[in-house]
């Protein structure tokens, strides 16, 4: 008698139907109730929250309102406002381009939507529609960036003194909402990065034309468009930004969980890298981006002599990140423009332009320190190099300095044509700026005693101490570069200041290398 075949197993259940959006709303409500229950909304915690909110509002809000009142109460606009008024349309257009570029750059790394990792791992894995879950985050991004943009517009209008407050606030708010929408598009459609790469040259060309129009050699049609009046332009901007923001919010339900997970990791890494002890964590995460890897298309043959190992590593890192020299050249050109804009104005405006130029030069150096950041990420790597730690740190500035001297040639030439010999200060200060950036890169781990601080009438000083520790590189660069770039010093004093600042910052960077390696 032949054996009967085993009966086939019953078919498994088919894929569950996606619940309606109401299920997602119920999930969000339950999550919020569970979160409130876990936090334990006691009277003590509520009082603490109220105290923190009121204290922050009093410290920041009252200071801002006091400054705003004193600025608006001035009998007449500042003297330099007359020079800004003719180029205000170009300045606004440049600000829009800069905000859009920063939004795209931020979205390639993290984006405007701050999703918590538990939400990605648990909530988005459930078979519920994602759009109701993403809508509160998207609306919060619109509200936060719109508020920041509105306050920025208010501050800019108060400083200039010749701009109406209401249009400036609305323009800043629309700019903030538009930046959040652009960032969300980049997060939703990862393939848009290629399109943006093709559009980057056109954006740079538009910025160059706007700079040329502001400085006089060429007249852009922006002024003719601005002549139609602020409310017409605001109406056109609102007609573009508001529908775009609504359309982008409707598409956020299709964002993948992997994309949100990488962005959540990036948000956490940047937050922890900035405020905890890992000083280079944020740089590594920002450079790599979300789910990206450096290009290996271009390679250099390893050196035959150990002494050239640092130069080889730095050059290889820049070849794998070809956009770093482009960003460096753009920042150096903007620094030269800032120096030219401050020439011949009142001392306060010259000092402000010099500080802006120094920060832009620091921004030009920072993307080139790929090898230095790699070495600074792990202190033991500095001991593996065939140099003393102090010499190895200084050698990390050789390739960035050479690249920066080449990329800064257009900016220095433009500054020479516009302001004469002062443009040479931009090139003369580059060694000091590279040394200052290296000192900031090798600052090491955050000392634990900075978290203690001391009590003062303004509160505990620990946050200020931690912030200044992270900003020691930019602070050193500003102190070294701003006085010679301002034009307030005579030529001999400026030359002496530049030489002394270069020597001091080089010695400071070498000392940072010895302390970093514990020798």
Automatic annotation (TrEMBL):
Keyword Transmembrane: yes
The entry's keywords: Membrane, Transmembrane, Transmembrane helix
Residue intervals passing through the bilayer: 49-68, 80-102, 142-163, 169-189, 196-216, 222-248, 351-372, 393-418, 424-442, 488-510
Renumbered residue ranges of the record's region Disordered: 1-25
Chain intervals with Pro residues compositional bias: 1-22
Protein name as catalogued: ABC transporter permease
């Amino acid at each position: 008698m032949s054996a009967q075949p085993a009966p086939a197993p019953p078919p498994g259940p088919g894929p569950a139907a996606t619940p309606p959006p109401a299920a997602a709303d119920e999930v969000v409500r339950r999550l919020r109730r569970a979160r409130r229950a876990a936090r334990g909304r006691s009277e003590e915690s509520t009082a603490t929250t109220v105290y923190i909110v009121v204290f922050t509002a009093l410290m920041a809000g009252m200071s801002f309102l006091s400054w705003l009142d004193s600025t608006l109460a001035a009998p007449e606009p500042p003297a330099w406002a007359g020079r800004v008024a003719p180029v205000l349309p170009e300045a606004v257009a440049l600000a829009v381009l800069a905000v859009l570029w920063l939004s795209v750059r931020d979205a390639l790394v993290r984006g405007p939507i701050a999703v918590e990792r538990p939400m990605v791992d648990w909530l988005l894995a459930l078979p519920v529609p994602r759009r109701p879950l993403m809508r509160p985050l998207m609306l919060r991004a619109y509200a936060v960036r719109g508020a920041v943009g509105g306050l920025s517009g208010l501050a800019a209008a108060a400083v200039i003194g010749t701009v109406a407050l209401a249009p400036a606030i609305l323009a800043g708010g629309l700019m903030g909402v538009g930046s959040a929408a652009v960032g969300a598009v980049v997060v939703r459609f990862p393939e848009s990065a290629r399109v943006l790469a093709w559009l980057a040259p056109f954006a740079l060309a538009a910025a160059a034309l706007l700079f040329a129009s502001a400085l006089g050699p060429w007249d852009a049609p922006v002024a003719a468009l601005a002549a139609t009046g602020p409310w017409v332009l605001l109406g056109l901007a609102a007609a573009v930004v508001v529908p775009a923001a609504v359309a982008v919010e409707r598409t956020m339900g299709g964002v993948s969980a992997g994309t949100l997970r990488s962005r959540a990791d990036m948000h956490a890494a940047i937050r922890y890298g900035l405020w905890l002890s890992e000083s280079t964590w944020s740089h590594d995460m920002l450079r790599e981006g979300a789910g990206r890897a450096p290009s290996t298309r271009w390679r250099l043959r390893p050196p035959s002599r150990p002494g050239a190992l640092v130069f080889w590593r730095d050059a290889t890192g820049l070849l794998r990140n070809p956009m770093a020299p482009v960003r460096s050249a753009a920042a150096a050109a903007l620094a030269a423009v800032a120096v030219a804009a401050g020439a011949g104005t009142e001392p306060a405006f010259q000092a402000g332009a010099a500080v802006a130029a120094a920060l832009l030069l620091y921004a030009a150096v920072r993307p080139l320190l790929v090898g230095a950041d790699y070495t600074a990420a792990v202190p033991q790597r500095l001991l593996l190099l065939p140099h003393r730690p102090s010499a190895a740190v200084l050698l990390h500035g050789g390739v960035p300095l050479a690249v920066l001297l080449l990329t800064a040639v257009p900016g220095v030439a433009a500054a020479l044509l516009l302001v004469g010999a002062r443009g040479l200060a931009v090139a003369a200060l580059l060694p000091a700026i590279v040394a200052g950036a290296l000192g900031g890169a090798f600052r090491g781990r955050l000392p634990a005693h900075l978290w203690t601080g001391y009590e003062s009438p303004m509160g505990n000083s620990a946050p200020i101490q931690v912030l200044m520790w992270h900003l020691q590189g930019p602070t050193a660069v500003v102190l070294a570069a701003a006085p010679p770039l301002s034009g307030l010093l005579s030529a001999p004093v400026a030359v002496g200041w530049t030489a002394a600042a270069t020597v001091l910052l080089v010695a400071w960077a070498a000392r940072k290398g010895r302390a970093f390696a514990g020798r």
